[in-house]
Amino acid sequence: MRGRIAFLKLFVQIPAGSALFCETLGARTPWPPWCGCPRLALISAGSMFKIRRLIAFMPTNVLGTELKCCCRDPMTGFYRDGYCRTGPEDVGQHTVCVQVTEEFLDFSVLDGNDLVTPRPEWGFPGLKPGDKWCVCVTRWKSALDHDRAAPVDLEATHASALEFVTLEELKAHAIAQA
To answer: Where are any strands of DSSP class E within 31-112?
Structure first.
């Protein structure tokens, strides 16, 4: 089995301070940040489980840095934790953190997604212009295509949104940072 290790040609950035191991021909070699090794590593298929777990707990935003909280009042996110995180059960991909505008809210209602009406049975307070909310990336893209896109908080928008929209599109609608 040792000679049958399949290597995956994938470079993964290893966060500083991580205790990740690189598996090379069956040998486990620690990868401490103080060893002077590069922080990019070629990893084996056997290490992918560790990488997936590490990534699951350290989601990144579209800028490649740590995902920031979108909003806790009202509490947003598919998991209602304030973050625009996603997972297999989130078929809508609620990954774009926006500051809703009246124009965006009107477009959403007309497009079949009423974000204005409170739905207490779902823990949804209803949104008003100025609120921040995690929206479905395809809904935001549709609003963009109709010139109704809401401003985006890039630091709180999950990196997986880039599967549907470009960074340039998001940056063109970024919330001005103070």
So the answer is: 40-44, 94-99
